Amino acid sequence: MIDLTGQKAIVTGGSRGIGRSVVLALAAAGADVAAVARNAEALDQLVSEGPAGHIHPVAVDLAAEGAAETTLAAARDKLGTVDILVNNAGVTRDGLLVRMSASDWDTVFDLNLKAAFLLTQKVVRIMLKAHKGAVVNVVSVVGQIGNAGQVNYTAAKAGLEAFTKSCARELASRQIRVNAVAPGYIDTEMTRAISDQARQAMLAQVPLGRAGTPEDVADVITFLVSDRARYVTGQVWRVDGGMVM
Ligand code: NAP
């Protein structure tokens, strides 16, 4: 059993899908968690589903100007400090390269990569003073192997993977670990728009023979932010049922 008692965590994209499961898993392990997303109602609902007093909603649009400052101020107000950061919020705007608009490119980069950079930069200042911390960035297997129709998303996730490794090298001497988790095909709202045909084709590529659940990903993230993973940094852990190996 992983014990995160007393640990203070920020999880972005906490209102649904993978992020919601991460918030619940960290809180169940004893952490106090600031759950960040735009949907205040969904965050309030989450508070009532977790252990009493452990989940704190922070309703912020992470793509907005000044969002990192607002998020950190709200999280510190509720938690006091930050030991764990999970950059999970993500968005897709799929389309073929020849038709991809600059605005769809920017939307995906602004949230998946720039918002993660800005929040990490601010949170790490606290971790540097404490000489400890754990950051996990949620990337994707398609950032490693590419995917037709997702030039923006795959490039942003590949960027976040490289960002993870550079941060890990910069911060290791202060005992701040930075890792990434790369989910494969996980059943969430993000993947529900996929056609049945594409879904079947994707599942045929998964040796474990099923779509992943948000909990499958949350369990690996819970391990990575815990002391059990104290000698792990700069790594990208695939959680994909063996899709890529
Ligand atoms: P999801 O169900 O669509 O959830 C996305 C989360 O991000 C929601 O909580 C959403 O909350 C939040 N979010 C979106 N825009 C935001 C914004 N501007 N500001 C703040 N929060 C925002 O997606 P998911 O499948 O759980 O994906 C979670 C992460 O895993 C993403 O980074 C995704 O790229 C990655 N991933 C997913 C899969 C998969 O198969 N599902 C595979 C590989 C990687 P609000 O709408 O309330 O703001």
Structure description:
The chain is α/β, with parallel strands linked by helices and 245 residues long. It has a single domain (8-238), classed as NAD(P)-binding Rossmann-like Domain (Rossmann fold). The chain contains nine helices and seven strands; from the N terminus they run E-H-E-H-E-H-E-H-E-H-H-E-H-H-H-E. It has helices at residues 17-28, 40-49, 67-79, 102-130, 142-145, 151-171, 189-192, 196-203, 214-225; strands at 8-12, 32-37, 55-59, 84-87, 133-138, 176-183, 236-239. Strands 3-2-1-4-5-6-7 form a seven-stranded parallel beta sheet, with helices on both faces. It is globular. It starts with 7 loop residues before the first strand and ends in a 6-residue tail after the last strand. The relative contact order is 0.15. Bound molecules: NADP nicotinamide-adenine-dinucleotide phosphate. NADP nicotinamide-adenine-dinucleotide phosphate binds at residues 13-19, 37-39, 42, 61-63, 88-91, 111, 138, 140, 183, 185-186, 188-191. NADP nicotinamide-adenine-dinucleotide phosphate is lined by residues 13-19, 37-39, 42, 61-63, 88-91, 111, 138, 140, 183, 185-186, 188-191.
pLDDT averaged residue by residue: 97
Q: In the residues, how many domains can be counted?
A: 1
Looking at the structure, what is the overall shape?
Answer: globular
CATH topology type:
Rossmann fold
Largest sheet: 7 strands, parallel
Summarize this structure briefly.
The chain is α/β, with parallel strands linked by helices. Helix content is 46%, strand content 16%. It has a single domain, classed as Rossmann fold (3-Layer(aba) Sandwich), CATH 3.40.50.
